[in-house]
Amino acid sequence: MLVRRKRGWELPESAATPEHVYLNRRRFMGTAGSGALAIASGLVWPGTGIAQDGGSARPTADLYPVPRNMRYRVERDLTSEELATTYNNFYEFGSHKEIWRAAQALPIRPWTVTFDGQVEEERTVDIDTLIRAMSLEERVYRLRCVEAWAITIPWSGFPMRALIDYARPLSSARYVRMETFQDSEVAPGQRQFWYPWPYVEGLTMAEARNDLAFMVTGLYGRPLPKQNGAPLRLAVPWKYGFKSLKSIVRLTFTEERPVNFWQEIAPNEYGFWANVNPEVPHPRWSQATERLIGTDERVPTRIYNGYGEFVADLYADMQGEPLFM
């Protein structure tokens, strides 16, 4: 008899927001957008007054909504779309949480992604060509910020493993170094010389190929808005949110461990791994609990953000590493 052990992050159907309820809400928002919220340049993001891109700016908009992968669901309610699209960190546009207005200045077409370093062939690919080459799905993930707040989002996109296969790295590559766009004319935060632009992050190849590592191209059944990292961002839900960099333009495969953006700024506070751990405080605050955005509730933080059964084996023999900074 086959006995299947359920992972800790896999929950019964009753524990997740029912799909028909979510889809009905999606249809309602679409109907509202076609009426009172419609404006000349497109629909607006709920509650923000921000116009969504018109069809000409999003050549892959016809792909959404995408099927939800029910393997990835959580016990928390989804964060409202209004909050998830207006409460953001995106230091390229400022250090406050309400960068969503400033982020609308980011031009996201044309947009290319470069694969270089230890690859079979270095190349640069148009973002829409890349998206159409992938099989898209929706996953509901928790996101835990290092600042001790949390949200729950239905991301659309594809497994990072598929992107690795697309890039064709050499067997000698041990890490993937990723970087975001750099354009200080549209991103005022990049005029602040004390930051080491562009924003850089990295993963081991084992982390990048893990089932949970996800390349995001949309959320809430639509293409990804600019303030959330359009047109391509990363989601690694077992790590603090700063690892999930936005608006990616380059992936470099290398034998050397990358130094990430925050690690370069404050190596005593941020490290390479950034795995969520309630028992290891940030030097300036506790990580034992987290605030659920949109509620008054604080809940206990879980090791690896609750995804430990899925990723803990990646770090089994690394006791000497500063895994959780």
Provide an overview of this structure.
With 325 residues, the protein is an alpha+beta fold. The protein has one domain (62-312): Alpha-Beta Complex (Sulfite Oxidase, Chain A, domain 2), CATH 3.90.420.10. 14% of the residues lie in helices and 20% in strands. Strands 3, 4, 7, 8, 9, 11 and 12 form a seven-stranded mixed sheet that branches. The protein is globular. The N and C termini lie far apart (43 Å).
For the termini, the CA-CA separation is: 43 Å
Number of strands: 12
The profile of the biggest β sheet is: 7 strands, mixed
Residue windows where pLDDT falls under 50 for at least 5 positions:
8-42
Superfamily (CATH H level) name: Oxidoreductase, molybdopterin-binding domain
Rg over alpha carbons: 19 Å
Helical content class: 10-25%
Structural shape: globular
Secondary-structure element order, N to C: HHEEHEEHEEHEEEEHEEH
What is CATH's topology name? Answer: Sulfite Oxidase, Chain A, domain 2
CATH architecture group name: Alpha-Beta Complex
Relative strand content: 15-25%
Q: Could you state the oligomeric state of the chains shown?
A: single chain
Can you describe this structure in just a few lines?
By secondary structure, this protein is α+β, with helices and mostly antiparallel strands. It has one domain: Sulfite Oxidase, Chain A, domain 2.
